[in-house]
Amino acid sequence: MRNEEIKDVQKINKLPIVAVLIGGAFLAILNQTLLATVIPHIMEDLNLTENTAQWVTTIFMLVNGIMIPITAFLIETFTTRKLFLTAMITFVVGTLICAISPNFAILMVGRVIQAAGAGIMMPLMMTIFLLIFPIEKRGSAMGTVGLVIAFAPALGPVISGWLVEHYPWRALFYIILPLAIIDVIIAYFVMRNITKRTYPKVDISSIILSTLGFGGFLYGFSSAGDYGWSNVFVISAIVIGAISLTTFILRQFKLAQPILEFRVFQDKIFTITTVIGMIAFIGLIGAETILPIYMQNMAGFSALDSGMMILPGAVIMGIMSPINGRIFDKFGARYLVIIGLTLLTVTSFLYTRLTPDTTLTYITIVFAFRMFGVSMIMMPATTAGLNRLPNRLIPHGSAMTNTMRQVAASIGTAILVTVMTASTGDASSASEMVDGVNTAFYVTTVISIIALIMAFFIKGTTPTEDREIVKQQQPNKA
C-alpha cells in the first residue's frame, strides 16, 4: 500500500503544484522582512521606539515559530489541498487587516494573523517536495525552496525601500493582497493531496506550552532593550519561557503521538545541520533588520538606498540557490556549507568596521558576498539533515528545522537589536550610535565561527549514501 502511494505521488504532474507552493511560500516569507526597511517610517508615523517598532518583524517570525511545530500535526490530520487553502486564506485575511490598520495595535493583529497562515507554508512545501521528488533529485528541488526561503526575505526590503519613497507604508500590503488572492484561486484548481493522513490526537497542553515557551523567550529578549536585563518582567518572561519549553520537550517524549517529534535529533547530522541553519538565518535576518536602521538613522541614507543595497545580494541568492542544489545532488553538503559559513563569518567581521561615513558601495559589496555565502548554507544543510530521516518522520523533520530556524531568527534578531541599543546607551553623536551596530556584528561574527566549526562534522556523504544510512537506522528505531 505504501509503495503504491509513493508510486502514485511520483506520477503526478509536479509543475502546477510546485508553482502554486512556491508562489504562496514566496509571499508568506516575503512578509518577514517586507517592513524591515520601513521601520523608521513606522516609528515616525506611529510614534514608536526602535525596540517597539521592530516587533512588526519580530512578531511575524515569533508566530511562525509558534505555528510551525503544530504543522506536523496538521499535515497528518488534514488533506494537503485543504491545509494549503486554509493557510493561504488566513494569510490573505491578515494582509487585508494590515492594509487598513489605523494604529500599531491593529497592525500587530494583522501581522499575527498573516504569520499564522504563513507558518504552515514552509514546512508544508518542504514536506511535499521531499515526497514528490526522488532522493537523488531532492537537492535541485530544495534549491528552489532555498530561492524562496532566502531570496524572498532579501527582496522584501528592496520592494519596500522603493515603494516607501513614493507611497505610504500601508501600500505594501495592498500590493501583496491581490497576488495572494490569485494564488488561492489557482491553488483551488491545481492543488492535489500528497501527504498521508494518520489522524494523530491533538494535545492542547503541548500547544499551550510551546506558545508560552517561545513567546516568553522572545518577549524577554526583546523587552530587555527597553527595560534592562534586571527588570522583573524581563527576567520573569525568560524564566517562564525556559520552564515552559523544557516541559514541552519532555512531554513530547512521553506522548505516543507527539505534536513535534524531538527524536529526530537522535541523528547527529540532522542536529548539526539544524543548528547551522539556525545560525545562518540569524545572520541573514539580523543583518537585514539592523543595516536599514544603521543606514537611515545613523549614516544618512534613504529607505530606497537601504533597499537597493540588498538587491545585488538578493539577485545572487536567487541565481545560486538552484545551482547549489544541483551541486548538492552531486557532491553533498559538507564543502558547500563550509565555504558558505566562511563567507558569512568574514562579512560579519567586515561589518564591525562601519562608520557614519561608510560608503554605499562598501556596504553593498559586502552584503552581496554575504548572500552568496548564505545561499550555500541554507538548503544544502537542511536537505542533508532531512535526507537522514525516513519518510514517516519527514513532516516532523521539516517542521522541526523550520521551527528552530524561525525561533532562532526571532530571538537572535531581538538580541542583536538589544545589543545595538544597549551598546549605544545615551549616545547622541552618529559615531557613538554606530558603535552599537558594530558590537551587534561582533556577536554575529562569533556565532558564525561556531557554526563554521560545526560544519566540519557534517559527513561528506552524497544523498544516495544518506538513504542507505536511513535504511540501516530504521530497524533500530522500530
Verbal overview:
The protein has 18 helices and no strands. By secondary structure, it is mainly α. It has two domains: about 1-200 and about 255-475, MFS general substrate transporter like domains (Growth Hormone, Chain: A, Up-down Bundle), CATH 1.20.1250; about 200-255. GO terms for molecular function: transmembrane transporter activity. Keywords: Cell membrane, Membrane, Transmembrane, Transmembrane helix, Transport.
Keywords:
disordered N terminus, MFS_trans_sf, disordered C terminus, MFS_dom, mainly alpha, 478 residues, membrane, Growth Hormone, Chain: A, 2 domains, globular
Set out the fold topology:
Layout: H1 2-11, H2 14-33, H3 39-46, H4 50-53, H5 55-77, H6 80-100, H7 104-132, H8 138-163, H9 171-190, H10 204-227, H11 232-254, H12 268-297, H13 303-331, H14 334-350, H15 360-386, H16 394-424, H17 430-455, H18 463-477
Helix pairs in contact: 2-7, 2-8, 2-9, 5-7, 5-10, 5-16, 6-7, 6-9, 7-8, 7-16, 8-13, 8-15, 10-11, 10-16, 12-13, 12-15, 12-16, 12-17, 13-15, 14-15, 14-17, 16-17
User: Given the structure, what is the number of helices?
Assistant: 18
Proportion of residues in extended strands:
under 5%
**CATH class categorisation of the largest domain:** Mainly Alpha
Q: Rough shape?
A: globular
Major beta sheet summary: none
Low-confidence stretches: 1-7, 461-478
| CATH homolog superfamily of the largest domain | MFS general substrate transporter like domains
Helical residue percent?
over 70%
User: Based on the structure given, which CATH architecture of the largest domain is correct?
Assistant: Up-down Bundle
Computed structural class? mainly alpha
Query: How do the SSEs run, as a string of H and E?
Result: HHHHHHHHHHHHHHHHHH
In whole angstroms, how far apart are the ends? 19 Å
- CATH topology of the largest domain: the name is Growth Hormone, Chain: A
Mean pLDDT: 83
Rg measurement, Å: 21 Å
Count the beta strands.
0
Structural domain tally:
2
